Amino acid sequence: MQYEEVFQNTTMFFKDAFKHIAGFEQTVIVEIQPVKEGRASLPMSVTVANLFMENSAVNTEAVSSAITDAVKSSPYVSQYRATTYCAAFKCDVQTTNCIESMFPKCVCKSSFSKTEWDDRSCSDCSKDCSAEENKYCAKEKGTPTCKCMPNFEKKDDKCVPCPVGYSGENCKNNSELILIIVGTVFGAIILSLVIAVSIVSVRAQHKQDPEKKRLIKSGNSNPNTSDDRQTTMFPRVQTTSGHRNPGYQPNNPYEMRSANRGHFPERDYEDFYEASRESEGFRMQSRY
User: Fold this and answer.
1) DSSP 160
2) How far apart (Å, rounded) are the C-alpha atoms in residues 150 and 40?
3) Cβ atoms of 261 and 255 closer than 8 Å
4) Global pTM?
5) What share of the chain is helix, strand, coil (3-state, %, to 5)?
6) Other residues' Cβ atoms within 10 Å of the Cβ of residue 182
7) How many CA atoms does the CB half-sphere of 246 hold within 13 Å?
């Protein structure tokens, strides 16, 4: 069935129904919907608004009675059901609330507001959805929705900053938290390694080689001392004829047993030599 035919049959039906009621002007078709039934001809559900003169004395009961009587004799209309003004006015149910009256009004719900071209809907967010409140208005499936700005989340109808480590839309991004945890773990590991290396280094400095400790005394560490005996690093060497080594062969001509020994006077001193350390090196000196 064509919509043009529906329109003609519908308007003709109401014109005949209200022919005895003064002040009727016209019938406005608001909505046409097919009814799913198992018939050859698909029936239609038609919502209409009948307009009367403002000074007409007609009331709702008179209108309903006239339509009910017309349905009984109409081959086209099978049933009639009265509805509200708001149902015929068709306010947007998602963004508005309809105030029932002869001239219905579509009032915006909370969190919505009208623009200058809105009549039966509210296509904008409310005034408190602003940057000052850390909010912005977005359209989702044609409906205005007030959301928190990035790096904010909604708590008790307020947009508050994200906790530490979270960011993004509704604070769902936790990549910063992962970086903080990883950085803290690596920092603790590096600090532990530094402490361990420091402890090992200190222990190594205090630990002295036992061989060095036996050979070098702590008193020999000062090279500027005036006492040659304290800076001696080698034992004294005594060159006398009384050497304990049986195989010792003296080089002193006074001790050589030769035929010329009588030509040399006897010595009246002992030869003592010792090695001492100086700033230029080592030297041998005799002591009397």
Assistant:
1) E
2) 57
3) no
4) 0.49
5) 30, 25, 45
6) 10
7) 0
CA–CA separation, 94 and 106 (whole Å): 11
- How many residues in the chain? 288
Q: Rounded to whole angstroms, how far apart are CA atoms 106 and 119?
A: 7
Beta bridge partners of 287: 272
Token pair for 243: 């050497």
Distance of CA 71 to the CA centre of its chain: 68
Neighbours of 213 (CB within 10 A): 10
**Residue 274 CA to its chain's centroid (Å):** 81
Burial of 13 per CB tally in 10 Å (0-12, 13-18, 19+) = buried
In the structure encoding, which two tokens stand for residue 285, read together? 């000196």
Question: What is the DSSP secondary-structure string of 16-40?
Answer: HHTTTSTTEEEEEEEEEEE---SSS
Element (H, E) at 276: strand 272-278
What is the residue-level pLDDT of the chain in tens, covering all 288 positions? 577 888 888 889 999 999 888 889 889 888 888 876 555 456 788 888 888 888 888 888 888 899 999 998 888 888 888 888 888 888 999 999 999 987 889 999 988 999 888 889 999 998 889 888 999 999 888 889 899 999 999 888 889 998 888 888 888 888 777 888 888 888 889 988 888 888 888 877 776 555 555 555 554 555 554 444 455 555 555 555 454 555 545 555 545 554 555 555 555 555 544 555 555 554 555 544
Distance CA 36, CA 176 (A): 56
Tokens standing for residue 168: 């993004």
How many whole angstroms separate alpha carbon 25 and alpha carbon 40? 35
